[in-house]
Design brief:
8-stranded mixed sheet, 7-stranded mixed sheet
């Protein structure tokens, strides 16, 4: 057995956690600013996925607004933006019909592109590395490091080769400590270290609770006659009831490929609801099924997304670092877009951080806080989120009241209504007891357009080393049964889109079985568990899904 050794350390000017569009945009902008001033700074990016893009999942219709600012010559550089949007529709579904709705202003996608966000991240990584950024995929940031004065010093990557008993195995490799004068957290939605920082520094004490949705996505290769490259379609209504927020998207790419997805707001009330089953049922609708009949499903994945918007943004800075992208909550919910907003937030943060580094006050909180906050307030990003601020929280009153309020806001007040609607509260508090709800009978998958979880998870290419410590922590097995199972009918067995959670009966007694190897890192259990009994932490680096072009 190898004995545990002291971790080595490396010093950088800036350490960035996460190689998504936010983290990579911050890295690129920092290097650009250094070049503009005739100097240089050292920038390191760590990424928990096995490669850049492996854990990236998004719709994605991409607004190039921020990319135009970051890399104006992106076309000449070969950015993977190939398919422009060439038509869009919004439908209201009933069980058998599809009724066209007028497109609200937030849905208009002229000038946008249907892309793979994973491919865009890989391309951004190439641009960053070309500027001298060091990128380390397969290294999960597992711990925040602090200086003696309480400011953030950097991060430590997780030790590799730790067994389920918590002891080093023969394959043990100690993690690295990466120290930065400033640390940028770009972990994406519900980042585990970002959540710790928000709690430690009370960054959300003046914010409304963050609220979330679960997005589930598949990529299909459809029959040529069903392919309409550039076509964008969204639906609302069936199969969800009028008190459950959500809807679908169908994005037609080139080469007979279609990205289809379904989003369910995690403030849903019925513990018997299964977002995965709702998605599978959606594809059987008479207006949707013909697109996929005779086709082939080639990819599957799921990810939580931040829906709180402007009201739920935490303070963006803390001593020694900043939050950017979805780690803070910059998604524009009604437009169903977060990549361009994440990029812009990261660019603003990079400019503030660079100014602090130049002034030699990198460890002092205040300078970067004021610069980042003021730059955000003066940016188009703030204006965009301000205009969108009322759309999602209005749905706490149901679908039709929300549609009416949002139409009034959009067409009368031009999204500048003289009110701001509060959110419903925390998603984990929204479930009703199972006894107060009616079970939902979902149809069995037909294997043609609808499928089960096992075959779906297989397409996510997820992998975790068998002997590593579980990354899904259960605080109390008793609470899982006495509260989760007996009061709420074990909702984790339905809200998890990967079949991680099962109830087994042994000698007549129920027990919660956690199949951590199935996890596709959507973070839903960390959000929706009614007693916060489940905590998601980073597994050993490189573990999880490998999405390819999702």
């Amino acid at each position: 057995m190898t004995e545990q050794t002291t971790r080595e350390s490396m010093q950088y000017d800036v350490v960035i956690v996460g190689a998504g569009v936010a983290g990579l945009s911050a890295a690129i902008r920092l290097k650009q600013l250094a070049a503009e001033t005739g100097g240089d700074i050292s920038v390191c990016v760590v990424e928990k996925g096995s490669e850049v893009g492996a854990h990236i999942l998004s719709g994605a219709v991409f607004n190039p607004k921020a990319l135009n600012e970051l890399l104006p010559d992106w076309r000449e550089r070969g950015a993977p933006l190939k398919q422009p949007v060439e038509g869009e529709r919004l439908l209201f579904l009933t069980r058998q019909s599809a009724l066209p709705l007028p497109l609200p202003p937030s849905f208009h996608n002229q000038g946008n592109y249907i892309i793979s966000l994973g491919l865009l991240c890989r391309w951004l990584a190439e641009q960053a590395e070309g500027l001298g950024v060091e990128i380390y995929p397969g290294f999960a940031a597992a711990e925040v490091l602090y200086r003696a004065d309480g400011s953030v010093k950097g991060i430590a990557t997780g030790d590799m080769g730790i067994g389920k008993d918590g002891r080093p195995t023969d394959a043990y490799q100690p993690g690295m400590e990466l120290w930065g004068r400033q640390t940028v957290f770009a972990e994406g939605c519900r980042g585990s270290l970002s959540e710790q920082l928000i709690a430690k520094f009370q960054l959300d004490r003046h914010s409304q609770p963050q609220t979330y949705g679960l997005g589930i996505k598949e990529i299909w290769e459809v029959r040529p006659e069903q392919s309409q490259p550039g076509k964008v379609m969204h639906t609302v209504g069936w199969p969800l009831d009028s008190h459950t927020y959500g809807g679908s998207f169908l994005y037609h790419l080139a080469e007979n490929k279609v990205a289809v997805g379904f989003v369910v707001g995690l403030d849903y009330q019925n513990p018997y609801l299964s977002p995965f089953e709702e998605f599978q049922r959606f594809k059987t609708h008479p207006a949707i099924r013909p697109v996929f009949e005779g086709g082939r499903r080639i990819a599957y994945g799921a990810r939580a997304l931040v829906e709180g918007g402007l009201q739920s943004l935490p303070k963006l800075t803390f001593p020694g670092g900043v939050l950017v992208g979805d780690a803070a909550g910059f998604l524009n919910v009604p437009s169903i877009k977060g990549a361009h907003t994440a990029m812009k937030s990261a660019m603003l943060a990079a400019e503030a951080v660079f100014g602090v580094l130049q002034n030699g006050a990198a460890e002092e909180e205040g300078a970067e806080a004021a610069a980042y906050a003021e730059a955000f307030r003066q940016s188009w990003l703030h204006d965009e989120l301000y205009r969108a601020r009322n759309i999602r929280p209005a749905f706490k009153w149901g679908f039709w009241p929300a549609m009416g309020l949002n139409a009034l806001d959009a067409y009368v007040f031009r999204n500048r209504a003289p009110w701001t609607i509060s959110h419903h509260g925390r998603d984990r508090e929204s479930l009703k007891p199972a006894a107060a709800c009616r079970p939902i009978e979902y149809p069995k998958p037909d294997g043609q357009v609808s499928f089960d979880r096992a075959s779906s998870v297989y397409l996510a290419n997820t992998h975790h080393e068998e002997n590593q410590p579980p990354h899904l922590k259960l605080a109390s097995e008793q609470a899982a049964i006495e509260v989760g199972y007996r009061r709420f009918a074990a909702p984790e067995t339905r809200y998890c889109p990967a079949g991680v959670y099962e109830i087994h009966h042994e000698n007549g007694a129920p027990r919660l079985q956690i199949n951590a190897a199935n996890c596709i890192h959507c973070k839903t259990c960390d959000i929706k568990d009614p007693t916060q009994n489940i905590t998601w932490i980073c597994p050993e680096g490189g573990g999880g899904p490998n999405y390819g072009e999702m």
